[in-house]
Amino acid sequence: MQTDLIIINDYCDRCHVDPSFIVELEEDGLINVQVIGEERYIPVSQLAELERYTHLYYDLSINVAGIDAIHHMLERIESLQHQVRSLKSELQFYR
Questions:
Q1: Residue-level pLDDT at 35
Q2: Mean pLDDT value across residues 52-56
Q3: How far, in Å, CA of 52 to CA of 84, rounded?
Q4: For residue 39, which phi and psi values (nearest 5 degrees)?
Q5: CA separation for the pair 64, 71 (Å, rounded)
Q6: Count of domains in the chain?
Q7: Predicted confidence (pLDDT) at residue 1 exceeds the cutoff of 60
Q8: 53 and 94 in contact (C-beta within 8 Å)?
Q9: Is the confidence at residue 2, as pLDDT, over 90?
Q10: What is the residue range of 56's domain?
Q11: Which Pfam families does the protein's record reference (predicted)?
Q12: For 10-20, how does the pLDDT look when each residue is reduced to its tens digit (9 = 90+)?
C-alpha cells in the first residue's frame, strides 16, 4: 500500500466534498487521479492544490472553468516572476 496516495472517497467524506467535483477537476486537467484496482486516489503532493480548488469552489462559488482560468493566471504570474528574477540577476552582472 502506498502512503503517498489519498483515497478520493475518504477525502470527499472527511472534507464534505462532492466526488463529482473531483471528477470535474480531473477532466479539466487540474489534478491527476490514479486508479489502482477499483479505487481512485489523488497523490498527497496535489493535496494543497485540491484544497485551494475546494476553497474556490465551495467558499467563493467559483465554477471549475473559473478555477481553471485562475490556475492558468497563477502559472503565468509564477513564470513572469521567474523572468523578473532572472533579469534582475543579469542586471546585477552589469552593475
A1: 93
A2: 96
A3: 26
A4: -100, 145
A5: 10
A6: 1
A7: no
A8: no
A9: no
A10: 5-94
A11: MerR_2 (PF13591)
A12: 999 999 999 99
Mean of the per-residue pLDDT values of the chain: 93
Extended strands (E) in the chain: 5-7, 34-36, 39-43
Q: What 3-state class would DSSP assign to 5?
A: strand
CATH number at residue 60: 1.10.1660
- The label of the residue with cell 523572468 reads 83
- Are 43 and 34 a contacting pair, CB within 8 Å? yes
Each residue's pLDDT tens digit, 61-82 = 999 999 999 999 999 999 999 9
Q: Is the pTM for the entire model greater than 0.85?
A: no
Q: How many CB atoms neighbour CB 54 within 10 A? A: 19
